[in-house]
Amino acid sequence: MSFFRLKDFIRAVRVCKTAADERNVIQRESAAIRTSFKEVDSHDARYVNIQKLLYIYLLGFPVQFGQLECLKLAASARFSDKRVGYLGVTLLLDEKQEILTLLTNSLKTDMNSADDYVVGLALCTLANVASAAVANDLIDEVERLLGSARSYVRKKAALAAVRVVRREPELAAAFVSRARTLLGDKHHGVQLAATALVGELCMHSQDALDEARRLVPVIVRQLRALLGGASAEHDVGGVNDPFLQAALLRLLCVVARGSQDAADEANDVLTQVATQTDGAKNVGMAILYECAVTALGIPSAAALRVLAINLLGTFLANRDNNVRYVALATLSAAVITEAPAVQRHRATVVRCMRDADVSIRRRALDLSFALINGQNVESMVADILRVLPHADAEFRSSMVYRLAAAITLFGDSLDWRAERMLRVLSLGGAYVNNRDLFKFLRMVAEADEPLQRRTVRTCFALLERDISQDKMVVAGVWLIGEYADLLRPLAAGAAAAVASPGLDADDLDILGALGRPVATQPSSAAAAQPISIDDELPQATPEPADIVRLLAAVARSPLVSRTSRHMALTALAKLSGRFSAQPPIVAAIRDALAAHCRSMDTETQARAAEFDTLLGRELDSVRAAVVERMPPPEYTDVPYEEYVLNPTAMRMKALTVIRRPALQPEDLLSSTAGSAGSAAAAAKAAEAAKQSVVSDLLNLMDDAPPAAAAPTSPMSPPGAASSPAALADLFAASSLSPTITAGDPAFSQEYQVYSAAGLRITLKPSKKPSLPAVVDLLATFYNEGDTAVEDLNFLVAVPKSQKLQILPPSAQTITCGSTVTQLVRISNPSKTPIRLRMKLAYSADGHSHNNMFDYAGFPDSVC
Predict the structure, then answer these.
(1) Which residues pair with 803 in a beta bridge?
(2) Contact 821/766 with Cβ under 8 angstroms?
(3) Which distant-in-sequence residues (6+ apart) come within 8 Å of 359 by Cβ?
């Protein structure tokens, strides 16, 4: 049974109660349509059958047998047939199918039609499914239609050209000459399509970008016309054609990026857009947002950049979550160059960290960390610590890691760093990584005795309150075991041997049942609450019996990890040396250790048995040497990643390629700077800002594939992480002309590492006196062949004992006889020989080249 009308067929499918019934109906109708295609050569029947096929296609059933019939229907003279035929071609075919070549003649005929809508159908079909061959055949027709006298055709032709250029970039040159005419068109639809076309051309052709920069006056003129005029036809919420304004602003950002002259031409109109657009409604805020992004994306004037930051700052107070989200995301990227201006909105950003929307909280946290510097580190860390106890579990790991980084990098006082790290451990100790924990323990171990005394007393008081934070327990137990003698009151005197009552089994049983230590003072409900950031950290001066009681409770508690339990047993053994003059305390320690000699965990049982043996009388002569204080922990100090405080900067890189010097606080006060000295400094800063740092790690030399790889900064020498010079080296973009180490011939020559197919690569090592563990390798690419080298991609891998940072090359295209440089920085604190595995990828003469090679020929002095 065949359903003649489409409505009847749809109704029959919808009344099916099961999937099997639906398949039967569709199979019968598909068979009837096949028969009709073979037996009936009628446009009316084909028109109805193609509609049914499209409906069957939307239901997910195969309809490939109707592709040729769609081409026949598209060749019909009737508009209704063409519309359905071209729709079928768009849905059932793609550019990979050879049958599309049969469509070329129909498309060319329809593009020459006097009916605008027929021409529009042909252009839409060309844009959607045209293959490279079809696009090349019809490129002249599209270019001709761009100059049509009918605005509808010009608009459709421009949109088709966008899709053609996107699919076949080499055809971009055919449309460059039409860009100025289309952008200056009076019809808004044509202008909107022209902005899309020019933007696409700029992405694929440097010649098109250079030509588009000459069109900045045209773009500025069109924006001024939109701001100064009013059209009821295009008015949306009181804004004259906001879609066209947004498109023109985005195009201006693309065209003026990297061009100082183009940015200077755009300064006035951007200021006019920012000041004349009403941001009370959503449509106005969209225009203001595009204006701010454009101002920050081009090397615009300092005052305009401040205005853009202030616009984004006003968005933070908006009730719409979407508006606040995009403002926070843009400010996180803008803080790279406009930190002083963004700092003015710090209070609003801090309030956003407590927003009800999780995405707003995430963006606000990222921006808050990005705002931290040496001047505001104390207040910003305090604000983030207030949020930490209430933060989502998914945020806490990142928050704790970045808090530790901020405290380490910007804290200028050991007392402040120790106090803040203790707060981090007490609030988020479960999320602290081992590297930050070891840094804290080493800092305390290397500090003077007053700081050690305050820290160990605070650790004891915090552990009395809560032992749920694992790394807090580890740090506190280790410090108590090493510096338990500093817990005693100073007035008591180290030589006073005060007899303290030992612990009986009942005490230990009670402590173990509770699972947490009992405070020396009466317990209260406040003990379980986190300590306010405005309150002083508690300190305790316990008696030896209280110290043993706390460590025994930690060792018996089910709340602590296996590692913390083992460290508590070790700390108990160490107490025997600190309080060796008090036999009741030593006896209590042995009782606490004996309770674990029957533990079900073999490691715990072995530790307890060994420590119990150590406390026996037969080992009195060696015990003191075994349990004496340990030296500061030794470990390789790995620096924090370059974008540790601003991951948005790593994802979005920078808003500009060539940017003006960063704003200074005096710029925010609208101070005028017109002296020759300030102009020279600005030019120097702008030149230095051309280099953007992009890290790229490739662990090709590892035997096993890495779980994750992150860009790392060059390693600083131990103890230099807190100095301003070290911080400048850690976060600043490196110059491509490093200082060469004098006096060593190994640093005065180039080492050839690759030579093939006309491309030669050399590496020239150098070192900076301030970073003796860092070797800079300047890679120089020489094109000695007859063809240009394009899409250059150079990757380097080093052994696990070394760290790597790769800066982007000076260019990705090497013309014949020219050179390109790229800086590779290797951190080698262990001074092991430098071995490189390199991967080179490039294209030349239409062919792609991929090579992998090793080099280990550097002298021993280059390490």
Answers:
(1) 827
(2) no
(3) 321, 325
808 has a pLDDT exceeding 50 = yes
**Which are the contacts of 455, defined by CB distance < 8 A and separation ≥ 6?**
418, 422, 444, 447, 479
Which carries the bigger pLDDT value, residue 11 or residue 514?
11
At 743, is the pLDDT very low, low, confident or very high (cuts 50, 70, 90)? low
Determine the Cα angle at 105 with ends 164 and 116, to 5°: 70
CA 497 to chain centre: 59
Strand partners, 849: 842
Q: What is the DSSP string of 716-759?
A: PPTT-TTSHHHHHHHHSPPPSSPPPPTT-GGGSS-EEEEEETTE
Q: How far apart are CA 555 and CA 597, in angstroms?
A: 12
Which pLDDT score is estimated for 847?
83
Identity of the amino acid at 837: R
- Look up residue 493 and give its two tokens: 């005197």
Q: Is the Cβ–Cβ distance between 365 and 357 less than 8 Å?
A: no
Model pTM score: 0.66
Of 247, 306, 236, 231, which is closest to residue 274 (Cα–Cα)?
Answer: 306
- How far is residue 723's CA from residue 411's CA, in Å, rounded to a whole number? 10
Rounded to the nearest 10 degrees, the angle between the axes of helix 67-74 and helix 79-92 is 150
Q: For residue range 8-40, what is the model confidence (pLDDT) as tens digits?
A: 899 999 999 999 999 999 999 999 888 888 877
For residue 851, report the phi and psi dihedrals to the nearest 5 degrees.
-135, 145
Nearest Cα to Cα of residue 386 among 534, 536, 539: 534
Q: How far apart are CA 450 and CA 458, in angstroms?
A: 12
From 60-74, 562-576, 694-708, the region with the lowest mean pLDDT: 694-708
CA distance 651 to 674: 36
